[in-house]
Amino acid sequence: MKQSFIGNNINRFTETVKDIRGKLFSKNNDYIECYEATESAEVKKMDVAKIPPFINFVTFNRMGLTIKNLNNILDSDEDFELHIIDCNSKDNTWDYIQSLTDKRIKSKTRFTLNLGPIYPLNYSLTKRKPGQYFITVDSDTFIKTKNWIACFMEVFDAFPDVGLLGVSRDKPYPRYLPPVIAREKGNSNYLQLKNATVGVDLDFIPGQLQCLRPELIEQIGYWSEENGYGDAELSPRIVHYTNYKVGYLTTVEIDMTQYIGCNLCLGRDICKLSKSVSSCFSLCRASNFNESFVRKHGWKYLETFKELEEGKRTAYCASVHDPESLKNHYYNQIWASENFDYYIKNSN
C-alpha cells in the first residue's frame, strides 16, 4: 500500500492558484491517500492481443448507486481489468470498495481531495497498458445488457475507423440523439456522429459509458485538463482533428437512476451517516459544481478549439499525471490549475 505524500493538510480555501500549481506540477502530484494494486510488473508485459479492456470507475459519494452499479459490472462473466478511484467521498463508499475481492479489480485508489472529473480520469489513463482498450463508466450508470464489452468490440472490429463509441443517455433522462449517420457492415452497425459541431449543445457522444480504441489514444493523449469540458470537448477534437470517427452503440442499454432510498440501499449495514442530517445523495448534490464550473470556465473550451483551428496546438492533450507529455506537447498550466483549484475549493 502506498500512502499519501501530499494534500493531507491542504487548506482548500486559502491556497492561491500559484500554491495549487506548485503542488500539481511537482513530482508528488497525485493527491493519493491510499493506493492498492493487485498486479505485478511482470503481468504488464503480457501479449497485447490477450490484454482485456481497462475499465475506469470513479466514485464520489452516492454509495447506494455505487454498490448497485459496481456489483452489476462485477456480476458479468466477461474479462476486464477494473480500476476504481474514490474522490474523497464523505460517506462509506471507500469502506465498500475496500471490501471487494474480485480478481479482475487491479487497483483501488483514494484521493485526499476531489479535483473534478478530469483529474481521476486521466490518472487512470496513465495506467493503461499499450494496446489496451479504455472504457470509462460513470458511477450512476447501470449496464442492463449482458456481454456488453463484446458488443463494443464487435463494432470496433467491423469498423477500423471508429475511435470512440458510447451510448445515449437513458432513464431518467430523456433519450436524445444529435444528427447521426447509420453505418452498417454485415451484422454490425452503429450511429456515426455526423457533425460534432463546436459549441452546439449535446452534439457529442455523452460520457456515462464510453470505450476508446488504443490507436486513437495515441493521437489524442488525454481528456483536456486545460478546458475541463470532458465528453463535450472530446468528440469534436476527435472528429475534426484526427482520422477517426465517433458514434453511438445501439446494442447496449443502460439505466441512469439517480437516487436509491436508504431502505433499498445495499450498503445500509455499513453506512455511518446520520440520515436525519444528510444522506449520501445530499452530500453528492451539495458537492456537485459541474454546472457552475461551466459557467465560470466554459470560455476555455471555445478558446481551445480556436487554438486548434489556428494551428497553435494539436489534437494531443497532455496531462499533469504524465510528465513526458507536458515536456513534449503544448499545455496551459494556468488554465488547468484554475480548473483543479475550482473543484478543490468547492467540492470537498
In short:
This protein has helices spanning 17-24, 63-74, 93-99, 118-125, 148-158, 214-220, 231-241, 280-287, 290-297, 299-309, 323-328, 333-346, and strands spanning 2-3, 32-37, 54-59, 81-87, 105-111, 134-138, 142-143, 162-166, 180-185, 188-193, 209-212, 245-248, 254-255. It is an alpha/beta fold and 348 residues long.
Q: Helical amount among residues, as a percent range?
A: 25-40%
Strand order in the largest sheet: 1-2-5-4-3-6-11-8-12-10-9
**Cα Rg:** 19 Å
Strand residues, percent: 15-25%
What's the count of strands?
Answer: 13
Q: Write down the overall geometry.
A: globular
Low-confidence stretches: 1-17
Q: How would a textbook summarize the main sheet?
A: 11 strands, mixed
Question: Which structural class matches the secondary elements?
Answer: alpha/beta
Q: How far do the termini sit from each other?
A: 24 Å
Number of helices: 12
| Assembly category | single chain
Order of helices and strands: EHEEHEHEHEEHEEEEHHEEHHHHH
Mean pLDDT: 89
Write the layout of secondary structure elements.
Elements lengths: L1 E2 L13 H8 L7 E6 L16 E6 L3 H12 L6 E7 L5 H7 L5 E7 L6 H8 L8 E5 L3 E2 L4 H11 L3 E5 L13 E6 L2 E6 L15 E4 L1 H7 L10 H11 L3 E4 L5 E2 L24 H8 L2 H8 L1 H11 L13 H6 L4 H14 L2
Parallel strand pairs: 3-4, 3-6, 4-5, 8-12
Antiparallel strand pairs: 1-2, 2-5, 6-11, 7-13, 8-11, 9-10, 10-12
Helix pairs in contact: 1-12
